[in-house]
Amino acid sequence: MHLTLEHVLVLGAVLFCIGLYGAITKRNAIAVLMSIEIMLNAVNITMVGFSYFDTVKLYSQHLTGQIFAIFIITVAAAEAAVALAMVIAIYRKRATVDVGEIDMMKW
Amino acid sequence: MLYQLSWTILFAPLLAFAVIIFGTRVWDLRSRPKVALPAAEHGHGEHHTDDHDTHAVTDEHGHGGHSEQDEDDDPHVPQLSAGAKASAYAALVIMALACIYSWVLLFSTVLHPADLAAAGKEVFAYNWLSVGGLNYIVGFHLDRLGIAMMVVVTTITFLVQFYSQGYMENSAGYARFYAYLSLFAFSMLVIVFAENFLVIFCGWELVGLSSYLLIGFWINKRAKPEEQRPSPASANLQAFIMNRIGDVGFILGIMILFVNTGSFDFIAVQHGVVHMDKTLLGIAMILVFCGAMGKSAQFPLHTWLPSAMEGPTPVSALIHAATMVAAGVYMIARTSPLFATAAPFAWEVVASIGAFTAFFAATIALVQSDFKRVLAFSTISQLGYMFVGLGVAGPEYGVGPGMFHLFTHAFFKALLFLGAGSVLHGLHHAMHKEVQDVRLMGGLASKMPITAATWLIAVLAISGFPGFSGFYSKEEIIGLALEQGHPVIYALTLATAGLTAFYMLRAFILAFGGKGGKFMGLWGGPYRGYGEVKESPLYMTIPLMLLVIPSVLAGYWTGFYQYVNVSAENVANLSIPALFQATDTWIGVIVSLVGLGFAWFLYGRVDLVKINQVVQSNAALRTIHRILFNRYYVDDLYNWIVKYVVLGLAALAQAFDRYIVDGIVNGVASGVTGTGSGIRRLETGRVQSYMIGFFGGVAVLAVVFVVLITTVWK
């Protein structure tokens, strides 16, 4: 049984859904961040999968998905740093990392 | 040249007004010592709403030493400053010159009728505005009707101003008073000289303004409900508003005429209305007459005139004789060619309202106890005569009869009012308070002989006693009513003549005579007041004596009929011999004599207390007395209408504004606010719920696109 594009896409979709579920349901801000990372990596897998199984075989397009994935990894690293800094700042201010209680942005 | 320069008469009082207001009055005010009122006196000073006059040292103690009773009065100064006196002299000199000039005009037009064309002459024209082919001209013209009126206005104003030197002695508002009198004369002269409806309307409103200022001159005085007297400040408002009601009709009438003839000019309108619908013209003229009803205090709009008695008495004389109420009669005389062109009902309305008012006011005057109010109602009644005179004369007799009565009435009514002012002035000095009730007078004839003698002559003149001026003008109108076929109007005016004689002699005997006096109660008698009454100073008695002359002699100038209305054919019939030969003249005389005799027998022979007892003990008499004393409750009716109808409508309008208009505006606002405060609950601030919304939206869009792709866009 060969590895096909469908396998990769299903893996990406499943991972994305797991991440989404985690991001929506988890109360802990750290866990939410982790879930977001899973969602980003699910997208990375999809990108790389599209790139690997590209049927047009143009060299310039061959790498587009790969480069996207690299960019996303970079941005995700920056995002993780900022998000963790924010979580720490909020924890210092309010002594909690429960996202249900972090609702300062309403009204 | 003599006629061309007559516009100087018009502007002379305006000049006097300007000189006083900008010159001598400023001088007067600046020369007053600026004394801060001590705190204790401030309660007294708080009514001084005219801030300029509060600079006056309120001379409570110098004025007879009865400050507690004089506190209602206008503020006084210990003595008049040079500026105040200069104001009076400026007004007097200028008015004397205008007066002499107008008499010269009168004599020269009488002696050389050919010099001034019958249609008159334009003496001043200023093109105020030219819009779309229409010229609005501030134009003044001079004709015989105007000259006759001008003589009355300038003469009466001059005498009133002369008289006021005595009456307004030491008033803090002395200079202001003269300024207003001059403005009043100017306003009236604008009406007299007016060449078109626009100018006459301006003068009309100016007269309203001046009367407003003068009726409310004693701004500090309060209402006296026990004497049914309003405060001057409300009386002048009443006069102003009543006149506005009439003016609505006037301006509507002018508009109808303007729309149909395309001009405001009297002569152009006169030529234009020939092609107009007679009924519409009649309605327009009745609307114009509404304005005259307001100014001349005819029946539905008459209540302001008795209230206007709250003004200083010289002002009452001016209003009643020359400047205010005469304006209505003059305006109807001025527009009489239009009335003559209109359907006959226009003149009939004028005559009927005049006759009814004459009778109506005369019955009220029968029982009034306020000295000035009797005179006020007699004025209303006599104005009714003038409108009857205008209304019944028709084109054959023209405006002569009505205007002649205006002419003679001006002199004897001025005399009556100035005499009344002399009495009130004397009583004020004797009793140190304002007394106008005839029940507190009596026996003044022996104390004030000049006033009493001149007043008696005026009483005889207004009663139509043969030989006095009122006889000629009034009997002419009464006779004309019969001759022109108006039996009801004739009956009403004839009855009014008797009533007039009765109430005028009643007022005379109550004030000046009384039971126990000489000549069986006609002269002197017991004085019912207190204090020592003295004859007024010469400043006041000289105008009285001067006014006696025209009060007697004015009636002999029957050339007046021809003078004011050259085109009337039948005026030759209106001569003195013809008057003496007519039977109805003598019927009128008999009725007047009956009235005089009845008053004399009742009030000269019987004690006032006894008369009151008889009236009060008889139920019917008591009821009639009460109705008449309360002036048929017309004032109360108006108060009721204002209180319940006008204020009710105002409350409805206010409720509409508050609940409906404001309700819509506030409802929209609160709807938006409510929606917003409901919707803001969606903003929880929780990131995860936003995330659900975001990804839920994406999912929905995804499903939609999948469905679209697989079905529609395939």
UniProtKB/TrEMBL annotation, chain A:
<feature type="transmembrane region" description="Helical">
    <location>
        <begin position="31"/>
        <end position="53"/>
    </location>
</feature>
<keyword id="KW-0472">Membrane</keyword>
<keyword id="KW-0813">Transport</keyword>
<dbReference type="GO" id="GO:0042773">
    <property type="term" value="P:ATP synthesis coupled electron transport"/>
</dbReference>
<feature type="transmembrane region" description="Helical">
    <location>
        <begin position="65"/>
        <end position="91"/>
    </location>
</feature>
<dbReference type="GO" id="GO:0005886">
    <property type="term" value="C:plasma membrane"/>
</dbReference>
<protein>
    <recommendedName>
        <fullName>NADH-quinone oxidoreductase subunit K</fullName>
        <ecNumber>7.1.1.-</ecNumber>
    </recommendedName>
</protein>
<keyword id="KW-1003">Cell membrane</keyword>
<comment type="subunit">
    <text>NDH-1 is composed of 14 different subunits. Subunits NuoA, H, J, K, L, M, N constitute the membrane sector of the complex.</text>
</comment>
<dbReference type="GO" id="GO:0030964">
    <property type="term" value="C:NADH dehydrogenase complex"/>
</dbReference>
<keyword id="KW-0830">Ubiquinone</keyword>
<comment type="similarity">
    <text>Belongs to the complex I subunit 4L family.</text>
</comment>
<keyword id="KW-1133">Transmembrane helix</keyword>
<dbReference type="InterPro" id="IPR001133">
    <property type="entry name" value="NADH_UbQ_OxRdtase_chain4L/K"/>
</dbReference>
<comment type="function">
    <text>NDH-1 shuttles electrons from NADH, via FMN and iron-sulfur (Fe-S) centers, to quinones in the respiratory chain. The immediate electron acceptor for the enzyme in this species is believed to be ubiquinone. Couples the redox reaction to proton translocation (for every two electrons transferred, four hydrogen ions are translocated across the cytoplasmic membrane), and thus conserves the redox energy in a proton gradient.</text>
</comment>
<keyword id="KW-0520">NAD</keyword>
<keyword id="KW-1278">Translocase</keyword>
<keyword id="KW-0812">Transmembrane</keyword>
<dbReference type="Pfam" id="PF00420">
    <property type="entry name" value="Oxidored_q2"/>
</dbReference>
<feature type="transmembrane region" description="Helical">
    <location>
        <begin position="6"/>
        <end position="24"/>
    </location>
</feature>
<keyword id="KW-0874">Quinone</keyword>
<dbReference type="GO" id="GO:0050136">
    <property type="term" value="F:NADH dehydrogenase (quinone) (non-electrogenic) activity"/>
</dbReference>
UniProtKB/TrEMBL annotation, chain B:
<feature type="transmembrane region" description="Helical">
    <location>
        <begin position="345"/>
        <end position="367"/>
    </location>
</feature>
<dbReference type="GO" id="GO:0015990">
    <property type="term" value="P:electron transport coupled proton transport"/>
</dbReference>
<feature type="transmembrane region" description="Helical">
    <location>
        <begin position="145"/>
        <end position="163"/>
    </location>
</feature>
<dbReference type="InterPro" id="IPR001516">
    <property type="entry name" value="Proton_antipo_N"/>
</dbReference>
<dbReference type="Pfam" id="PF00662">
    <property type="entry name" value="Proton_antipo_N"/>
</dbReference>
<feature type="compositionally biased region" description="Basic and acidic residues">
    <location>
        <begin position="41"/>
        <end position="68"/>
    </location>
</feature>
<dbReference type="GO" id="GO:0003954">
    <property type="term" value="F:NADH dehydrogenase activity"/>
</dbReference>
<feature type="transmembrane region" description="Helical">
    <location>
        <begin position="406"/>
        <end position="427"/>
    </location>
</feature>
<keyword id="KW-0812">Transmembrane</keyword>
<dbReference type="InterPro" id="IPR018393">
    <property type="entry name" value="NADHpl_OxRdtase_5_subgr"/>
</dbReference>
<feature type="domain" description="NADH-Ubiquinone oxidoreductase (complex I) chain 5 N-terminal">
    <location>
        <begin position="128"/>
        <end position="178"/>
    </location>
</feature>
<protein>
    <submittedName>
        <fullName>NADH-quinone oxidoreductase subunit L</fullName>
    </submittedName>
</protein>
<feature type="transmembrane region" description="Helical">
    <location>
        <begin position="448"/>
        <end position="468"/>
    </location>
</feature>
<feature type="transmembrane region" description="Helical">
    <location>
        <begin position="88"/>
        <end position="111"/>
    </location>
</feature>
<feature type="transmembrane region" description="Helical">
    <location>
        <begin position="198"/>
        <end position="219"/>
    </location>
</feature>
<feature type="transmembrane region" description="Helical">
    <location>
        <begin position="123"/>
        <end position="139"/>
    </location>
</feature>
<dbReference type="GO" id="GO:0008137">
    <property type="term" value="F:NADH dehydrogenase (ubiquinone) activity"/>
</dbReference>
<dbReference type="Pfam" id="PF00361">
    <property type="entry name" value="Proton_antipo_M"/>
</dbReference>
<dbReference type="GO" id="GO:0012505">
    <property type="term" value="C:endomembrane system"/>
</dbReference>
<feature type="transmembrane region" description="Helical">
    <location>
        <begin position="175"/>
        <end position="192"/>
    </location>
</feature>
<feature type="domain" description="NADH:quinone oxidoreductase/Mrp antiporter transmembrane">
    <location>
        <begin position="194"/>
        <end position="500"/>
    </location>
</feature>
<feature type="transmembrane region" description="Helical">
    <location>
        <begin position="374"/>
        <end position="394"/>
    </location>
</feature>
